[in-house]
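The following block was generated as part of the benchmark described in Methods. Ligand: succinic acid.
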Amino acid sequence: MADVLRTRGRHVEYNTITVRPLTPAIGGEVSGIDLNGPLSDAEVDDLHRALDDRLVLFFRDQPIDHAAHVRFSEYFGGIHIAPSTKPWQAPGHPEVTIIHADKDSTFVAGEDWHSDMSCDPEPPLGSVLYLHTIPPVGGDTVFSSMYAAYDALSERMKAHLEGLTAMHDAAVGFGGITPEGMKLPRTSHPVIRTHPSTGRKALFVNKGFTTYIEGVPRAESDALLQYLFQHLQHPAFQCRFTWTPHAIAFWDNRCAQHSAIWDYFPQTRSGFRVQIRGDVPR
Ligand code: SIN
């Protein structure tokens, strides 16, 4: 593990923002920018480079409305409207998903490790989550670098996984909570994907959606996935974000996974998420 960690720590220069790394592997808290108004080309360029370097960016004190939320997301691509999240669309804003839990909740979105909507043929490039209401304590989100998870595999395991594909099925995460009869997507993706912008390899299986590795006996697939799901949760690959009201987390869904911790029941945690259109994982 130490060898993998030593390979990180590149220095990236920014012209318009300050980025404070959270851990060597992942996470950067961005300051010096206002997401309520239009951004300059230089700011957008800095944010692209910061996202490539840090995988998830955090912004504090940014009270945004739906229009500002969507405008910010669109600097990074078109909007992804996931069919499986239709029941939680904000009224009049299908591009905005409500993320909310309170004393009446029986589940919360994203409680286990996952990459958003990896069941879709073109899973989102990233997600922009804005929370306006935060419980007095708890409700953190934990993020894990799938570059770090890949880099830390043995060369033999990397060679074994190369070229394998796995099935991702929305029924795992959404089966019990979407209206009966709703058609849920399932798609096959490579187990190892190459990030189109950084060229780095990332592990692309997750507990929230991946059901089996194709072309191998089911028992072998189960054992391999169990190992990989455990491996990708190593604390050395992670950062943990403690929310404050009107904070935003913007993560790269192609190389990071996340898990929302539901330790604050019966308190309220509430906000909105917009997802950015991605491409076919390769
Ligand atoms: C999600 O999985 O997109 C929600 C994450 C969170 O609520 O922290």
